[in-house]
Amino acid sequence: MSPQPQAAVGAPLSRVDGRLKVTGKALYAAEFDVDGAVHAVMVDAGIGRGRITSIDTRDAEKHPGVLRVISHRNAPKLPYRDNSGSNNPPGRRLRVFQDDRVLFHGQPVAVVVATTLEAAQHGASLVEVEYDAEQPSTDLNEGKPGEPTAYARGDADAGLRDAAVRLDLTYQLARNHHNPMEPHATIARWDGNKLTVWDKSQWVMGTHDEIAAVFDLPADAVRVINPFVGGGFGSGLRCWPHTIVAALAARETKRPVKLVLSRRQMYFGTGFRPSYEYRLRLGSDRRGRLSAAIHEIDAETSSYETFTEGVMAPGQMLYSMANVSQAYRQVPLDVNTPIWMRGPGFASASFVIESAMDELAHKLGLDPIELRRRNEPSEDEAKNLPFSTRRLRECYTVGAREFGWDRRNPRPRSTRDGNWLVGLGMAAGVYDPGRFPAEARARLDADGTAVVEAATSDMGPGTYTSQTQVAADALGLTMRTVTFRLGDSLYPQTGPHGGSSTMASVGSSVVDACNQVRQQAIKLAVEDEASPLHGVPAGDIVVRNGRLHGKGNPARGETYRSLLARHNRSHLEARGNYTGPPTPERESYYAYNATFAEVAVDATLGLVRVRRMLGVYDAGRIISPKLAESQAFGGIVGGIGTALLEHTVTDHRDGRIVNANLADYLVPVNADVPEVRAIYLDGEDNAGNLLGVKGLGEVVQVGVAAAIGNAVFNATGRRIRQLPITAEALL
């Protein structure tokens, strides 16, 4: 079959939903106008661990406008059916208002429902809660690790013992919070035994399934709506307790209920990137060939669920070596459960591994890029599989040329600009893009326009736009004649909108659905004696701008509109699907990058300023260059935050988060953002998806913190093995 012309895919198009967003017409979860909606505000636990001994709600209940105060004293027992899917980690998920136990500071202990937001807020302040408090355990360094997840190949102890050069390094990585602009919010409305929820979510089907499990409802009794997400970064990848609280409050008051988390509540109402202590022992010969690595990884999790992420993978496959040993231990603490945050696991591991590689290069007197080249594997040594594509060498070459790496002085503290010490650093990055089963529905209407639907989300990468591009080319239509709909659990099911999975997974199902519709139209035409295309081989027909014609004879053809009108068809429709990656795996499928940074450090004050950054990416086919640029810039800015600013501070006396606000939890602002450039290697990766993509949203943040840290060392001669890198550490 002749390939379709690609007019939209690869073009630097503006967002199709851009006008809605800049004019305020895009509706986010809390902005839907639901008739009769009342407001709910949660009361949060003021201790880090213990039991509730009393709750005095009398003053709150007497406050004008307050309709109901719900706590474990009067809440109905909820079924909380088992739901191991929906991104719930192993363990016993938090059950709101089901008992008197307090598991972490900020846990919901009551909710006040009132006719106005102000009445609900004041009512919540009037609820008096007393506790039998216990000393919480919230310090990673003082927790008791669980049994490790282990990996080994070769004999790492012997390989390290015999190595000519050895490093023994310990890194500490702070907890990070996502802090999207849009707070998490839910509106819940019951219509008899059916529940509709407008919810901020990166996985409407996951939220749908969790609500159905908690309330023991049939699948068709729950609908989740979520057309726009104002940033997520992973925070919306599971259904959080406030969503259940909103649905419960709506059922108990028999009114639609709106519940919006405050910025402070975002720090314990949703998850976070967990803190790590990561010890890495590395061995090599004197030419820099790695011989052994021993990784000992401790990460925080909650006392009631065991959260894990892909922190082990980079240490298994990024560099070639015969001997590797890893132990990854979760440390249960009296905190709420972590969740994935952009570049999950890989971003944390990359800071350690790439910083260590820089240390090794300095010790050996090698250029950091040359050291990495000498340890480039020919296959994935963890899986014994060939790489689908792995173009890191090319990333290094292009990046070094474009960044001016040859101007780097390898001697630390040797380059100055007035009182500023200037340094260059680089790091490699890798990420395992997700590929989840997905479905999509495409309908071509008689007027020549099309509607495509899938229950995915768009938290900012531009899903509306990229999926419209894919659908338009597959159908042979212009962008303005295709509408892509998402964010509704009534649409065909998809996996989570995270893990760099959406383009490969949802995009493949969209292509499949649209290809089927186009082929239906072609079949109608070639079998219709009244069609100009009658008798033309179906494989020789393409569609462009809504017109079917022979590939070699553009004058012979007809439009979708005339074809469907002649056949009295109101529409053509098909359902496409993507089944996920091949089983068993035939190739090792990763996205890669090389990230370069130039920093300046005030020699007196220790202040770090990032001056320039460059990312070079092996990410397969780029569907939308304009959106890709946005992704790369956003990931690099996020990496600057992780490297220099972001740090959730906990008071270990009671588990309270000290800086639970955007004034004290520092994130990059415009003044922190340097000159940024992104380069994408041309090519495709067809390992298991129809588009040749790898996904871009995660890999763009992996390696950024390490590149900055390595540049700081080149500038100052100070090696900082903790994140964030602060002025205090450099003084």
Task: Write up this protein.
This is Xanthine dehydrogenase family protein molybdopterin-binding subunit. One of its GO terms (molecular function) is oxidoreductase activity. InterPro entries: Ald_Oxase/Xan_DH_a/b, Ald_Oxase/Xan_DH_a/b_sf, Ald_Oxase/xanthine_DH-like, AldOxase/xan_DH_MoCoBD1, AldOxase/xan_DH_MoCoBD2, AldOxase/xan_DH_Mopterin-bd_sf. It is a single chain. This protein is α+β, with helices and mostly antiparallel strands. It folds into three domains: 18-24 and 436-578, 2-Layer Sandwich (Aldehyde Oxidoreductase, domain 4), CATH 3.30.365; 32-134 and 181-231 and 236-269, Aldehyde oxidase/xanthine dehydrogenase, molybdopterin binding domain (Aldehyde Oxidoreductase, domain 4); 276-434 and 587-730, Aldehyde Oxidoreductase, domain 4 (2-Layer Sandwich), CATH 3.30.365.10. 25% of the residues lie in helices and 26% in strands. The chain has 17 helices and 30 strands. The strands form seven sheets. A seven-stranded mixed beta sheet has the order 3-5-1-12-9-10-11, sandwiched between helices. β10 (194-199), α5 and β11 (222-225) form a beta-alpha-beta unit. α15 packs across α16. The longest helix is centred in the last third of the chain and has 25 residues, at 502-526. The termini are far apart. The mean pLDDT is 97.
In short:
The chain is an alpha+beta fold and 731 residues long. The protein folds into 3 domains: 18-24 and 436-578, 2-Layer Sandwich (Aldehyde Oxidoreductase, domain 4), CATH 3.30.365.10; 32-134 and 181-231 and 236-269, Aldehyde Oxidoreductase, domain 4; 276-434 and 587-730, Aldehyde oxidase/xanthine dehydrogenase, molybdopterin binding domain (Aldehyde Oxidoreductase, domain 4).
